[in-house]
Design a protein that fits this description.
The complex is a heterodimer of chains A (200) and B (179). Chain A is mainly alpha-helical. Chain A is built from 8 helices and no strands. Chain B is built from 8 helices and no strands. The chains are: A mainly alpha (200), B mainly alpha (179).
Chain lengths: 200, 179
């Protein structure tokens, strides 16, 4: 196990130069991400931060933010991407594989058990009503997430404009994501470049 | 026939994951388009139920895709959907992770990081709309979705809290014969 002293040293060093790579075994990676998967109710954003930064101290908050930023511009699920990157950083390819397995295996089994259980009682009026309510609530969850993100991100008219375009294209017109992003993403990036230049 | 559908699934899930930026919520419209609208592997209602179950279980939200795969083609579908969603994008992440220190200070990286989030917000709102249309067919649903959205927008609490409350309200309302 890691001592708090070396963590402090590692963190101080990353402020200036990169610290010597920390030793985390593949078994520990598997275990750590197993915890993330099992504790992560309603998404793993909080759980992954708790385990990787606060509990195991594999990464400092700053290092985690850099990895998170990377995960957000890459295609796919952000936090799964991050899991692969962290696993790879400490244990190479097999570290990444074990971290991903740790993250997903147990929750997949729980999910299938839950769905099987649901099927057993799918005709029960309480289960029908409860599931309908959960499905409606789950849609509400996404609205809430969109609102929360939008509040911080859409702080200028340009951002609002691009958000509206992608919403109309995907949500209202139901156009495919590929075409929408192929058109909008380059324009948004070009605009961001242009504005960066004008702001100096 | 069965192999055929598995290949089609592999492509649909791979394609959806690889073109999505901004995480799971932005995958919903495309995977919905693929498996409900275009190929008819699931009904709108089955989609909404599968999504709801995946939200109640612990683990990464990517398991929504796993759940869809299981519903469409059992364990084989589950495996194909999960691998097709996770593996290719993880490989990209792995490569990017190894070059992170180099690209972190690159100008295009900063610009992309600034340009993408507004598009992602639009995509998430589109996901919310599509999920709502699949899941809601009476005013109780509207009230519950609005309540959960409001709760999520104003607090930092775990999503499972408002979701559980919604379930209890839904059951009680049905018991009292409101719906």
């Amino acid at each position: 196990m890691d001592s708090p002293k070396t963590d402090q040293e590692a963190e101080q060093k990353t402020e200036h130069e990169s610290a010597p790579p920390k030793q985390v075994s593949r078994f520990e990676l598997f275990n750590g991400f197993l915890m993330v998967g099992l504790f992560g109710f309603g998404g793993i954003a909080a759980a992954i931060y708790h385990v990787v930064v606060e509990r195991k101290k594999w990464l400092s908050a700053r290092e985690y933010a850099a990895v998170l930023g990377l995960g957000q511009v890459l295609p796919g699920a952000n936090l799964v991407n991050i899991t692969a990157v962290i696993g790879d950083r400490f244990g190479g390819l097999w570290g990444a594989v074990l971290a991903l397995l740790g993250l997903t295996l147990a929750p997949i089994l729980i999910l299938v058990a839950l769905a099987t259980l649901y099927d057993q009682f799918a005709t029960n009026p309480d289960v029908i009503a409860g599931t309908k309510a959960a499905a409606a609530g789950a849609a509400g969850l996404i609205f809430g997430t969109g609102y929360k993100l939008g509040k911080t991100i859409l702080d200028n008219r340009t951002a609002l404009f691009f958000a509206t375009l992608s919403f109309v294209s995907i949500g209202l017109l139901r156009w495919p994501l590929l075409g929408t992003l192929a058109v909008l993403a380059p324009i948004a990036v070009a605009f961001s470049f242009w504005r960066g230049r004008h702001e100096g | 026939m069965k192999d055929d559908i598995l290949w089609q699934m592999a492509f649909a899930f791979f394609f959806t994951a690889i073109i999505s930026v901004g995480g799971i919520s932005t995958m919903i419209p495309e995977i919905h388009r693929q498996i409900v609208e275009t190929r008819g592997w699931m009904t709108n209602e089955q989609f909404a139920t599968a999504f709801a179950i995946s939200q109640v279980a612990p683990g990464p939200n990517i398991l929504m895709m796993t759940m869809m795969g299981w519903r469409i083609a059992g364990w084989a579908g589950l495996t194909v959907a999960t691998l097709a969603t996770v593996i290719p994008t993880s490989i990209i992440a792995l490569i990017a992770g190894r070059t992170e220190e180099r690209i972190e200070h690159a100008r295009w990286y900063a610009m992309t990081k600034r340009a993408l989030p507004p598009l992602v917000v639009g995509l998430i709102c589109a996901s919310a709309l599509i999920t709502a249309q699949a899941a809601i067919n009476d005013w109780l649903g509207v009230v519950l979705a609005a309540g959960v959205a409001l709760y999520m927008a104003t607090t930092k609490s775990n999503p499972l809290v408002p979701l559980s409350v919604a379930v209890v309200i839904g059951i009680v309302a049905a018991r009292f014969g409101f719906f």
